Amino acid sequence: MSRLDQLPADQKAVLQLLLKQGRSYDDIAGLLQLERRAVRERALGALHALGAGAGADLPPDRQDQVADHLLGQQDPDQHAATRRFLAGSAPGRRWASAVAAELAPIAPAGLPDLPAEHAEAAGAEAGEEPAGSRRLPGDPASRSGGPAPRSSRLGGAVLVLALLLAAGIGAFLLLRSDDPSAASDEPATSQAAPAAPQDGVEAQVTLAATRAGGNAAGAAAVVVSRGTRGLAVAGQDLRPGDYAVWLYTSRTETRLLGFAPRVTGNGVLSVVARSIPEDYARFRELVISRERVTEANRDAERTQPGTIVLRGEIGEPPAAP
After folding, report:
1. For 284-311, how does the pLDDT look when each residue is reduced to its tens digit (9 = 90+)?
2. What is the CB-side half-sphere exposure of residue 31 using CA atoms within 13 A?
3. Is residue 176 over pLDDT 70?
4. Span 51-60, pLDDT tens digits
5. How many H-runs (helices) and E-runs (strands) does the chain carry?
6. Angle (nearest 5°) at CA 17 between 14 and 23
7. Distance of CA 294 to the CA centre of its chain
8. Structural domains in the chain?
C-alpha cells in the first residue's frame, strides 16, 4: 500500500480536491464552511506524511512553504521565492522530489517542476541567512513565531465534513455535472417556474453521538447541483455494522432515506443520496441508526429507526432570493 493510500481520509480528500479538481484552499473552505487554516493544515499534514524520512534536514516551516508550492497554492511572488529557495537547497529539493513522486498519481495536470541546483554558497557570501532558515513573507510560521499547528485526524464532528467533501459532496457534484441526463429535457413553457435552489451547500447538519453511539461523530450536508438536491453524510468512530439514514421528528413521524454501505473496522461511514425530499426541512432531525440486517429481514419495509447512534437538528434551509 502506498503512503498516499495510508493517509487519513480527510487529508486524502483535500489533496484530491486540490490536485484533481484544481481547487484552492479558499474554494474548499468556502464549500465546507470551514476556516482556510483548517483546510491548509490537512493538506500540509498530508505532505509531511508523504515526505517522512526525506525531510530530516528541512525545517517544518520550509516543508510547509514547499508543500504550498507543490499544491499550487502560492501567489507569483511566493512561487518565485520558493523556486529560489529550492535552487539553493539540496534538502529542499530532496524533500520536494520525494513528495512529488507520491503525489503524481493524483495530479493529472502535473506538478511544478523543480529548479536546477545552483551554488548554495552564493547567498552566504552576500550575507544572507542560510536557505533553510529564511521564511517567506506572509507565511503563518513567520507571523506566529513558530510552525502552524496541524492535526493528523478528524478532530470533531464539523471536521468530518472534510471526508464528506470527497466521499459525498464532491461525488454528487461531479456526477451531476458529468451526467447529461441531469440537464432538464422538459419543453419550455410560458408559465414562470419556481426559483430553483442555488448550487452549493444548502444546509449542514452536525451529528452528535447518542449514548449508544459512544465516541462517534458525523456531519451531513444537503447539496444542490443544477437545481437538484442531494444528501451527503459522513461519520467516524462507528462500530462495524449496518446503518440507515433517516429524517426524524418522532417515532411516528419518520422517513427512511436509505442504507449506508456497511461500516467496516475503520469505523468510517460515508453515503451519498442523489435525491432528497423537497420537504426535508419539515422534519426536526437527521439521524443515523444501527440496524440488525439479516437474510430474513433484508427486504422488509422499515418504518422506524433501530438504535439511533448519531443525530442532529436540520434547521431551516435558506430562503430563496
Report:
1. 999 999 999 888 887 788 999 999 999 9
2. 25
3. no
4. 998 988 999 9
5. 10, 8
6. 115
7. 33
8. 9-144 (no CATH), 160-179+196-313 (2.60.40)
